[in-house]
């Protein structure tokens, strides 16, 4: 999982987002860091809508395909989503999609 995450990060940084997505899609096991790596790649490549789409996918993840470290959105996920929302101008709108997320539930420490 760690090598694949590093490759996603690498390909994102050299503007090869298709390769980053291919690696992510081919992963049998994914962890929070896997999603975070692809979100970062999307942000680097000015694709904030893709970050929000991936976040929605992340929330609906099939827990049978979770790696040994586990799955739970973390602070890095939150920052990526905030950055994407900011780039889309959603943080300044009172009726934005950003306001609709139940952040306490999504990022709660308890199961």
Question: Which secondary structure elements does this structure contain, and how are they paired or packed?
Answer:
Elements: H1 2-13, H2 17-26, H3 32-44, H4 48-59, H5 75-87, H6 97-100, H7 103-106
Helix pairs in contact: 1-2, 1-3, 2-3, 3-4, 3-5, 4-5
Number of strands: 0
Helix amount: 55-70%
Secondary-structure content class: mainly alpha
Identify the quaternary structure here: single chain
Biggest β-sheet description:
none
Mean pLDDT: 83
Computed CA radius of gyration, to the nearest angstrom: 14 Å
Give the N-terminus to C-terminus distance in angstroms: 23 Å
Order of helices and strands: HHHHHHH
Counted by DSSP, the helix tally is: 7
Instruction: Please state roughly what percent of the residues sit in beta strands, choosing from under 5%, 5-15%, 15-25%, 25-35%, 35-45% or over 45%.
Output: under 5%
Can you walk me through this structure?
By secondary structure, the protein is mostly helical. It has helices at 2-13, 17-26, 32-44, 48-59, 75-87, 97-100, 103-106. Helix 1 packs parallel to helix 3 (32-44), helix 2 (17-26) packs antiparallel against helix 3 (32-44) and helix 3 runs antiparallel to helix 4. The longest helix is centred in the middle third of the chain and has 13 residues, at 32-44.
Please tag this protein with its features.
61% helix, mainly alpha, 111 residues, 7 helices
């Amino acid at each position: 999982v760690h090598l694949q995450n590093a490759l996603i990060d690498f390909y994102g940084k050299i503007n090869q987002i298709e390769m980053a997505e291919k690696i992510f899609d081919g992963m049998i096991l994914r962890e929070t860091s896997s999603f975070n790596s692809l979100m970062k790649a999307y942000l680097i490549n000015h694709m904030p809508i893709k970050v929000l789409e991936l976040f929605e996918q992340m929330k609906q993840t099939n827990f049978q395909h979770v790696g040994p470290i586990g799955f739970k959105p973390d602070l890095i996920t939150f920052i990526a989503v905030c950055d994407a929302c900011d780039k889309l101008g959603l943080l300044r709108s009172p009726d934005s999609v950003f306001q609709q997320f139940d952040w306490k539930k999504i990022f709660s420490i308890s199961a």
